[in-house]
């Protein structure tokens, strides 16, 4: 245990050379380190946090600034003269903070020149007052803080927003900015024409960095996964060196020491920061793979930024710099990583080389503390120093505007890189910070008013039963504790209980004495004593005599942590085997640290939940899931040994006598009538404890019978055997505390051996049950929707079903076919067929109901398509047709296209002999026109975007007559239902990869709706005839703008995702596709993917 | 029949084929997820995913229009999202809003977009939307006091474009022996309980919403009380009717229910290590359609 004294210079820093992990919740996005390396600043939408890295346990300073924009960048001024300046972005503005001012008034300047979000800020390396900003508005501005009203230099690339801007280290007039794939070099003296443009990346450049030593060398990192090193005095096209990585590179910088660079991935790359060497000279233009010499691995989410924290003795004439990497990640952990000697050597960093000029000396102080207020009296009056603790006072303590100090402390994890931590070290709580954390979670009623881990002082309040009048009354206590630096080793803390109206000084003295006694006894054994002291204060009896014997069990956390540690060690070794080979000892430790932390977190939340309430049900060992193709995936446990069950009942005996848990009520519910049914635990934790009990029975001497009685015992050893295999995970579970030490120490060994025992326990079967499913892919592939006549369609489909031996289905088709013929004949013979029509309707209704009951979606959808068209339209006299043809006239040259598309969509022509139809010759002479079924209003709706269309409805009386003559066989009120069937079937067709059939099917639905269903890229790609690319090359692409407001245009009809950017819009049907989607779709088909029937390609002048 | 035995060193808790039936994902108490490529009767292990810190209870494939994406849930309280890119599997997201074991994870019907439903023993269910810009928007609901064992989406019946999103429904089953049906409320931008179905006398272990929307909605719930109840609702509204799948009790506790693609066949499995298939006859009675034993 170390107490972190306030370091006076960097060499005394308590956190340097150690790894440290700090959890900071709150969506922080950007990070910067102060020039002295003592503080870091984190920026979020809520403002800035200033964290003192030398005293990580202290809550950070919070400078409020609420915005709704993510902070893109924050930069701490690197200059000693302006070491209190921090610049952060706030959308299109940059805020210059002066941390030496009070937090409420810390913004010194607002730089407002960009008109879109700022992406990067860079301080001038020589001039403290100058900084540059760049933005996605494509401008780069340079600002002088002496006149911050407007930028003194501006340049723009016009074409693309800037991602980064950097000043040259050598030439104070030169800076560079990255725009899209290119890097622009600017010279302030040459106005706003770029000095050079470096082109070479094939994707967005995310980061650039000038070489510190060489004026014209710059490195760039891009989304194309490459890091390129340029010398723009030599070549603007050919990089001097290219390093290829397997991830898009978010940031890459030269090392501030030696010859090397660090890169970090945008996504992937194990969320690590890679340090690589540049020592070996390569010939210009060389391309190599990234060969990291060190990998900082441990974050669980992508790294947002990495920075170097440096320490050296000011004024020294030798280079004694020491570095520590600071990373911030989306996983909300701020991590500090030590750099070891071998890394320095590998990048050729000659330490202790003599310097010509000593490094600048920075004031090693922190800005975490609020600057002292001016000493005048009035401010004192405004801010009384002592806070009177009342109900409202406590409330204020929990004010959400303040940082929860306890939560903050619990996020700090630290360990000394040089001391390899023994996993079974009893000293689990490594410092006061962790002790406070654990206790804070354990005793939610205890309020920590002040936590200062660095000075070892705490102030806490609680209510205990110390009233002299009435022992049931709780008395409010406020206690100051001061912990000596080498606590807990033989140095007890001092307690001071504040004077209280309800307690007289004698009583206080008495309590204090007892507290001192408890703490002394504990610390004599080198134990942390805060918990027993608090238990005492809360009214519990503390038996100090058992301290010696029960030292292991006194704090159950210790046992828990054993399990946790044990697990983390197992896990990290697993991870190591899978991870890249470049892991060093320290990074392994960090990994463990991380594991440890996460499992600790899990523990905290779970223990808060109380184990008894862990209601996770027992795992499923057997199950079955259906697949789209009618296969059933089943999984089983493959062990069933009857003789084992025998054993089991025998074993039940002794355990049963120990005592059966009475709490397990629900089991009675299903056990009442079948006693032979194996009793089974219901909760997962029970199976865990049961299997442990089993384990303890066989593995260890059974002196833990007490604990055994405390959990459920149940009968089926078969089950035990299954569950026993879970032992590896059991080691981490908090259940463990139930068993005490003896089990805990055994578990890890046993766990491994049991895993090997537990082979051959499970099996997965995939069995085909498609014969049970009514919907068949084979049928779908051959069924047709449209043909010369409905009867022909029915006949064809009946044959298809017959060919597959599906007599029922074939019969169904035939019946409907016959009905249609019959209907035709009646229609011809006699005009008054209405009564009979009702009979037909009833018949169809019955058919549909039968199919609904047998859940045959395929047939339902087929019928709802085929019977949807009023049959009469197909066999009107020629005269009626000609009048119909006059119904819609377009004053638009595309009219021919339009009708053509309609006709084309009915394409599949059946030339089979059609004996159903008595008037085959009539049918053959006509092309069915689907457009006939469109009611005029729908036509208007569909084509409302076409210019210059005039729609006239003529012969409306005849239209009405026609409409009356052709009632649908399907009940129109059920139309939504039928649409739903068609939609479901279209999904089935999609599963089966029958895309053309699906498009045909969806035509029926698109007749009623303007919003068309989706169709997206099908990766399996069925053998469809490919059309030459040029056939759609002439399709016009256009960028969509927001003015087009109706829905169809915004969703790609191919992938169903929103369309932004390049898209094709069919001039006829107005359906939209991404340019890419259109390309792949039109290789497969000529029709619109929405199924509207439009032949989009023909709508364009294709050459 | 393809058989994969002893793929995992410990109990398997779920096995799911992807959309095309080509890839099988299994998960186990050994904390791993394995991906197999299945071709007729042959299979090949292509990947083992490590990342969970506890037994992995369930996996679910997202619809392929979102990419090759798998969600998994575990005793460690986390839902992990895995993605295959260029033949490599990476963990792309963590959904960690639950404080206890996450027992079930399900992707919504693809029409709704990338929504994920997770049920946890902390008594809550969460619905997460993975938005295009990479952010997530979780809605966490208190569902069943003692713990939620399962949750399942209703299939997306055809509705008109935007309004279908408003019709989102799902069902949860919990340790309070109840089954609850939830519906999205656009006004409140959350999900509200539409119906609470009482019928089981012990923990509900699985609920499954039939993927077909024929005459009525079908829900199957299986429970620790060794019964399976089929709940039906006419026209997506009105009261739910309760039918026991089988009048007498099953020989052992039931764990799992799964509907075939158009809701023809229901597969039930449980502690007796058997899978039974069920089918509704024309009279509306449920009858056995087969049995699978290992």
Automatic annotation (TrEMBL), chain A:
Its main location: other. Pfam families: RWD (PF05773), WD40 (PF00400), zf-RING_16 (PF17120). One of its GO terms (biological process) is cellular response to amino acid starvation. Transmembrane segments: none annotated. Residues 689-700 have a biased composition (Polar residues). Residues 575-603, 689-709 are annotated as: Disordered. Keywords: Repeat, Vacuole, WD repeat. GO terms for molecular function: signaling adaptor activity. WD repeats lie at residues 111-153, 198-231. SUPFAM superfamilies: UBC-like, WD40 repeat-like. SMART domains: RWD (SM00591), WD40 (SM00320). Residues 434-544 form the RWD domain. One of its GO terms (cellular component) is vacuolar membrane. The keyword Membrane does not apply. It is found in: Vacuole. It comes from the Eukaryota. Belongs to the WD repeat WDR59 family. This is LALA0S07e05644g1_1. It comes from Lachancea lanzarotensis.
UniProtKB/TrEMBL annotation, chain B:
The keyword Glycoprotein does not apply. WD repeats lie at residues 49-92, 197-231. Its main location: membrane. One of its GO terms (biological process) is positive regulation of DNA-templated transcription. GO terms for cellular component: COPII vesicle coat; endoplasmic reticulum membrane; GATOR2 complex; nuclear pore outer ring. PROSITE patterns: WD_REPEATS_2, WD_REPEATS_REGION. Keywords: Cytoplasmic vesicle, ER-Golgi transport, mRNA transport, Nuclear pore complex, Nucleus, Protein transport, Repeat, Translocation, Transport, WD repeat. The keyword Nucleus applies. Pfam families: WD40. It is found in: Cytoplasmic vesicle, COPII-coated vesicle membrane; Endoplasmic reticulum membrane; Nucleus, Nuclear pore complex. GO terms for molecular function: structural molecule activity. It is a peripheral membrane protein. Belongs to the WD repeat SEC13 family. This is LALA0S05e08614g1_1.
